[in-house]
Amino acid sequence: MAGHSHSANIAHRKGMVDAKRGKLFSKLCRAIYVAARNGGGDPAMNLRLRYAIDKARSVSCPKENIERSIKKAAGELGGENFEEVMYEGYGPSGVAVLCEVLTDNRNRTAGDLRRAFEAAGGNLGATGCVSYLFAYKGLFVVDPKHTTEDALMEVALEAGADDVELVEGYFEVTCDPKQVEAVRKALEDAKIAAESAETSYIPSNYVDLDVDNGKRMLKLRDLLDENDDVQNVYANDNIPEEVLAG
């Protein structure tokens, strides 16, 4: 399962954090703004906002940036008008790609994404062209140093999780998105630390890539990550280890 695990993707993202810290903070704060605008500025009453704040804090996003985004959403500092849009397309070798986007200009974003896909040998598709290949799930990644598989399974399944699987050296716990808070609390109560806790689009199958197409897929991921409007990228790519290591 090399290359496509969520733990591998998390490690790849963390490796780019320092180089792109300012851009990353901007994206995270945009997500906080939209969560607060849609559900209110109190993270105790707005789970989506709490998760957005937790994600920002996990990469040391400054507290003042987080607070400014929440105040903007409340209209205290002048608001912005971002739309949530899901773009779909095909990467090299027909890899299915979903892009979660927050944009204030759909035409600009669509043009930018079309150029990114084409530069990597893929193409932007129509709504629904690949989304059926993904399931929307709650996802927790746990380092085995924090627990055993049996202990984790007992706690997670009791809290409503669907599955616990060892992937690329990490446990991945999946659940219905509605059960995320219950599973999070159960892990916290059991003193089991999670490397990440989020909702994610998980592929039902994967496309094995050769080295050349693996490099093209990494190029596409990098181009999409560089776009300020793109919040998250999900794909059913299985990139060779030598490409990831390179």
UniProtKB/TrEMBL annotation:
SUPFAM superfamilies: YebC-like (SSF75625)
Main location: cytoplasm
InterPro entries recorded: Integrase-like_N, TACO1_YebC-like_2nd/3rd_dom, TACO1_YebC_N, Transcrip_reg_TACO1-like, Transcrip_reg_TACO1-like_dom3, YebC-like
Signal peptide: none
Keywords, sorted A to Z: Cytoplasm, DNA-binding, Transcription, Transcription regulation
Gene Ontology MF annotations: DNA binding
Stretches assigned to the TACO1/YebC-like second and third domain: 82-236
Domain of life of the native organism: Bacteria
Stretches assigned to the TACO1/YebC-like N-terminal domain: 5-76
Subcellular location: Cytoplasm
Family: Belongs to the TACO1 family.
Protein name: Probable transcriptional regulatory protein PZE19_15105
Organism in which the protein naturally occurs: Paludisphaera mucosa
Organism phylogeny: Bacteria, Pseudomonadati, Planctomycetota, Planctomycetia, Isosphaerales
